[in-house]
Structure formats: C-alpha cells, structure tokens
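Chapter review: from sequence to fold.
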Amino acid sequence: MLTIDANVWVAAADQHDLFFTASRSFLTQAAHQRLNIYLPAFAQIEIACALARKRRDAEAGRQLATAILGSPQITHVQPDASFLAQAILTGTASFLRGADALYAATAAIYRTQLISWDDELVRRAGAITPTDWLSQQEGKRG
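The token string follows.
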C-alpha cells in the first residue's frame, strides 16, 4: 500500500520534468502490481492545480485530477477530527509544511509507504523516492 505525494503525479504527467521517466516507471509498476493507494482528499486539487500551473494548461490539470478520482486503486481519505489531529501531531513533530503533514498523516494512519521527491518528506517523515521504491522492488525479484 502506498501514499503518493503530488510531486510524483505531476512529474509523471509532464514530459519536461526532470523526474518524468522515474515517476512514470514508478506509477506504471504500482498499477501493474495493483497496489492500493491512499491519498488525502485534497490531493486531487493539489495535483490538478500544480499541473495546470506548471504547464499553463488548465485542462491538463483537470484531466489528471479526473483520472485520479476515477481510479479504483485509489482511496480518498476524507479529513475528520482524528485525521487532522494525526496531521498536526506528525507535522509538528517532523517540522513539515501543512500539505506535507496531510500526506504523512495518511501514510501513518493507513500504514502505507509514503512516496515523494520532496527531500523534507524523505528525511523527516520516512518517505522514499520513486527510484528507491523501484530499486526495492527489483531487489525483491532478484
């Protein structure tokens, strides 16, 4: 089970992104393995807006959000009081930005592996990069 930060989704949707190939490979492998993905509910908005802003293409952002919303592999975690309490606890303990705390809380609550290109999430919240995740998968097969 995985929780995937917005930066991975956005990189995979933008051919000009430095992390495009690795992000695509990671998402393809996760889909192939039919892994369950848990995302905080706001993630679709963050992903749509980030891609639209980056590519200056509103429709591209909406299309990616629609695809994520419709994926049967993805569980959208709705915030409630206990979720927000976990996000506050995780975020303040790890000195995270607000949005990052929501991803970290999702991973903590659902015991998923947090995947991100964000160095702060890697260093402070136990996330791994898509490249590291792919390497781990290779190690399991080899």
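Two observations follow directly from the output. The mean pLDDT is 95. The first helix runs from residue 6 to 12.
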